[in-house]
Input
Amino acid sequence: MTAPASASAEPAARLRVLVVDDSVVIRRMLTNAIDADPALRVVGTAANGRLALAKLQSSPCDMVTLDVEMPEMSGLEALLEIRRAHPSLPVLMCSSLTERGANATLDALARGANDYIAKPSASASGAFAAELVEKLKALGRTVRKPPDPPPAALRRPPAPLVAPRTGASEPAAAIAIGVSTGGPNALAEVIPRLPANLAAPVLIVQHMPPVFTKMLADRLGRTAAVPVMEAQHGQEVAPGSVYIAPGDWHMTLVRDGARVTLSLNQEPPENSCRPAVDPLFRSFAAVYGASGLGVILTGMGRDGFHGCELLRAAGGHVLAQDEATSVVWGMPGIVAGSGLADEVVPLPQMAAAIARRARLNRTGKGTP
Output
């Protein structure tokens, strides 16, 4: 007769989470969502950053959810102390959907937080719980190896599934970028390094809620050599400008003769996201075809995969971020593993790789 498993065996295999928030209601919401998943469990809670630091000393954990705004010691202050003592401990920031909350969250990401989640309204608590669990488990895979090794196709890109490219290709007339988990820091590495003479427009979908995308565009614009803005419906695409899809809106492209304009819509989410990468890439492939360059950066899930299939079928090219520099190698991993990437590029080299393939303005005015 087989002996029963010990009572402590099952919890020990679950990822241990410390929940930090000054609101009793939010702490309870987070705890209930986390403990309901068999892969996670809450090992402690704290009402401010100072108490969180004490908990980390007494109760080891695998990751932390950290409120941005708290009394006594804020989430940003606590994050700096956590990073000094625990440089690789995954931290998920929890933020309000306000301009102040968005700015603080982007500060936290720049200072070492791994990801963030926006606090929900009462009507969206179910979707929030699902997103929270998904994000925590994705971050957990960065600190614990899965019980079975991932398929070789997801560790190392195989030979391309499409016919090899022959002959020289024309410089890309436009660039589309899809990114999710780890995206703000990845974009901060890429966009400011794009050359000032870039003559191709750049269209970006970053999985983010409203307000956050505007703050992100403003931050990138302060350090970029090219204009960066949150996209507007009906806006004409201009060479050498960067457009970020606004939170909660899909962004697509429409061609009218020589003009290309942006179209925003609130059709149903795709891949559980709005904005989603696939709607942009579908229209991008239709509008630009062989002259389009798609780029898939760090992110969990598979958003952008089908769009890359269409872009490659139309003759366009695709770059994917490599595993070593990705926070989560989900989106770029599925693209690379399926042979859809022309090149798998480390993040520090991505801007140069884009510039090599993009149309540059050497004679005056570029065209979209």
Notes: The radius of gyration is 21 Å.
